[in-house]
Amino acid sequence: MAPPVIVGLTGGIASGKSTAAAYMRDAGVPVIDADLIARQAMQPPSVCLLCVRLVFGKEVINEHDGTLNRARLGQIIFGDPKKRALLNRITHPFIVASMMAQLLWQLLVRLQPVVVLDVPLLFETKNVLWICSKTVVVACEPDVQLARLQMRNPELSENDAKQRMAAQMPMQEKTKLADIVVDNSGTQSDLRQQISALLQNLYPSRRAQQLYRGIILSLAALVGYTFVRFATRR
Ligand SMILES: CC(C)(COP(=O)(O)OP(=O)(O)OC[C@H]1O[C@@H](n2cnc3c(N)ncnc32)[C@H](O)[C@@H]1O)[C@@H](O)C(=O)NCCC(=O)NCCS
Ligand SMILES: Nc1ncnc2c1ncn2[C@@H]1O[C@H](COP(=O)(O)OP(=O)(O)OP(=O)(O)O)[C@@H](O)[C@H]1O
């Protein structure tokens, strides 16, 4: 495969995306995490948090420190598709802009041949789908997913957890859209093995990587030369 390879990593809630992403990072692959960016975008002071406060009211803001009350906002948006769509309209432009900036950094400055975009709503919003050369879905059976979600978030009732699962495209549909499906119904060590095999197949040949670096460095030299010529012209 020719570089750069941009992998869209997705799956259902608590299906194991972050765990798979952590194994990819361990293998040295840069991962750009949409959930992390969303959290950073909501750190006060921020325009995103201000918009959330204006739209959802001050009940979603913690009084003592002005941070986002994630549990409260979660209760509101996971039970109401219209409010969820509103939140998405506020947060997604920030998330996409930051992901693109980080992607350009990894591809053009760090010259990485493979970059992973970890995006829970990859197929639902399609915001960054167009740039992905491969899509990977981490999947597991719905009962396993529910059990893992409740284990990780014990504060959620069974109903809340099911509501969160229903807020996304059903797993079966995601697996149909994926180029590669990683089955995470087994142990974490099974998952690690699958990720390691997947990465071996994704990496471009050494020759293709050298060619990619050569092209980017030549382009950078050309841009630099043009800039200097332009800046020093009389
Ligand atoms: C609603 C919020 C405050 C709940 O916070 P909480 O700490 O409980 O959950 P966390 O952020 O860890 O998300 C856990 C999972 O929920 C799912 N999820 C999050 N936001 C959404 C959404 N808008 N629609 C559907 N599923 C979502 C994802 O699978 C995500 O991995 C938070 O999820 C949020 O700010 N969401 C909006 C940003 C967003 O769309 N993120 C997904 C990026 S593609
Ligand atoms: N194979 C596995 N066996 C047992 N537990 C697992 C396995 N894979 C992941 N888990 C656990 O399941 C939970 C959910 O996994 P993870 O956070 O990776 O999912 P996610 O898809 O990133 O979730 P979210 O969509 O909420 O961000 C975590 O507590 C994780 O440790």
Automatic annotation (TrEMBL):
<dbReference type="InterPro" id="IPR001977">
    <property type="entry name" value="Depp_CoAkinase"/>
</dbReference>
<keyword id="KW-0812">Transmembrane</keyword>
<keyword id="KW-0067">ATP-binding</keyword>
<dbReference type="GO" id="GO:0004140">
    <property type="term" value="F:dephospho-CoA kinase activity"/>
</dbReference>
<keyword id="KW-1133">Transmembrane helix</keyword>
<protein>
    <submittedName>
        <fullName>Dephospho-CoA kinase domain-containing protein</fullName>
    </submittedName>
</protein>
<keyword id="KW-0808">Transferase</keyword>
<feature type="transmembrane region" description="Helical">
    <location>
        <begin position="211"/>
        <end position="228"/>
    </location>
</feature>
<dbReference type="Pfam" id="PF01121">
    <property type="entry name" value="CoaE"/>
</dbReference>
<keyword id="KW-0418">Kinase</keyword>
<dbReference type="GO" id="GO:0005524">
    <property type="term" value="F:ATP binding"/>
</dbReference>
<dbReference type="InterPro" id="IPR027417">
    <property type="entry name" value="P-loop_NTPase"/>
</dbReference>
<keyword id="KW-0472">Membrane</keyword>
<dbReference type="GO" id="GO:0015937">
    <property type="term" value="P:coenzyme A biosynthetic process"/>
</dbReference>
<keyword id="KW-0547">Nucleotide-binding</keyword>
